[in-house]
Amino acid sequence: KAGVTQTPRYLIKTRGQQVTLSCSPISGHRSVSWYQQTPGQGLQFLFEYFSETQRNKGNFPGRFSGRQFSNSRSEMNVSTLELGDSALYLCASSLAAGEKLFFGSGTQLSVL
Amino acid sequence: QKEVEQNSGPLSVPEGAIASLNCTYSDRGSQSFFWYRQYSGKSPELIMSIYSNGDKEDGRFTAQLNKASQYVSLLIRDSQPSDSATYLCAVIASLRSGNNRKLIWGLGTSLAVNP
Questions:
Q1: What's the N-to-C CA distance of chain B in angstroms?
Q2: What is the mean pLDDT of residues A98-103?
């Protein structure tokens, strides 16, 4: 059974640009969550989608957005990138919202 | 504000010893509790889940839950250098609206097992 797949693995952008990250969940998993992780800050929850609907949202500015497609694949978008957006972005899938999470390898975003 | 707290460490134990990791949570209505392990440069992986009071054992790992005292702990017996990682505690907290449940994370405890 394939795990959670995130693309791309690494990304370098400059301030002001926008970026789209992709996540394919484990087959059969309908819930996808996104997290930002920076050294010393722990896992910061961005949002959670279930059956194409956003169920929960963290305390991030509106520059961070996401969506989920009918095949459960999810994308997150960050517009007008800032230096502070440099982080590891993790996607996790689960059978149902709020259950055991299985994480992808993450996308390491560097904003220069 | 629902919170999950962990001692950041680092917790240093000799090889073969028992490592004890603790986590406290603020939401009395919490029902599901998880321990994840994260190696440096890797993503978190689930190692234990526990839902009822008492102990749950899986190999060298034992999770302990005490809902009255609002803490959950993870014991690692016969600690190995390969257990050196950050251990994250996560708790499902209830939200006021509807049946939405939200996973609340601790900041993690860094464990170093010395050969």
A1: 40
A2: 86
- Of B87, B104, B73, B79, nearest to B38 by C-alpha is B87
Contacts with B45 from chain A: Cβ below 8 Å = 103
Query: Considering CB atoms only, which of A90, A100, A106 is closest to B49?
Result: A100
Q: Along chain B (115 residues), what's the average pLDDT of each consecutive run of 10 residues? A: 86 97 92 94 94 95 96 97 96 68 89 96
The CA distance from B110 to the nearest CA of chain A, in Å, is 11
pLDDT of B98 reads: 53
Residue of chain A whose alpha carbon sits nearest to that of B49: A100
| Contact flag A43-B42 (C-beta cutoff 8 Å) | no
Give the bridge partners for B76, in sequence order. B19, B61
Measured between alpha carbons, how far is B31 from B7 in angstroms, rounded to an integer?
Answer: 22
DSSP string for chain B: ---EEE----EEEETTSPEEEEEEES-TT--EEEEEEE-TTS--EEEEEE-SSEEEEETTEEEEEETTTTEEEEEESS--GGG-EEEEEEEEEE-SSTT-EEEEE---EEEEEE-
Tens of pLDDT, residues A41-68: 889 999 999 999 998 899 999 999 999 9
The answer to whether A42 contacts B103, with C-beta atoms less than 8 Å apart, is: no
